[in-house]
Amino acid sequence: MFTKSSFVLGLVIGTIASAISTFVWYHYLSRAVNSEGLYVSSGMGIRFLIAVMACLFWVRYPDIFDLLGIALGLMLTYVMIIVHGVNSLKK
Fold first, then answer.
1. Where are the chain's structural domains?
2. Taking residues 41-65, what's their average pLDDT?
């Protein structure tokens, strides 16, 4: 049922890419916290490439994956960060 919808398949691809991007961001953050150097990297280039690779699924198979679903899946991490920030402000 869910695999017949191109929006849901795009959402799955976007969510997987968003999760991988979050783990990359966390890796760079923990490395920066444990480092004593002045250079801090956030892994933006790698996270950008992950988003581009997710969008390449749509470029290659536009009838199977929906671009809006991929975009919403990629934004899922940022929505979770905003929700967590608002919840922590309420406390």
1. 2-90
2. 91
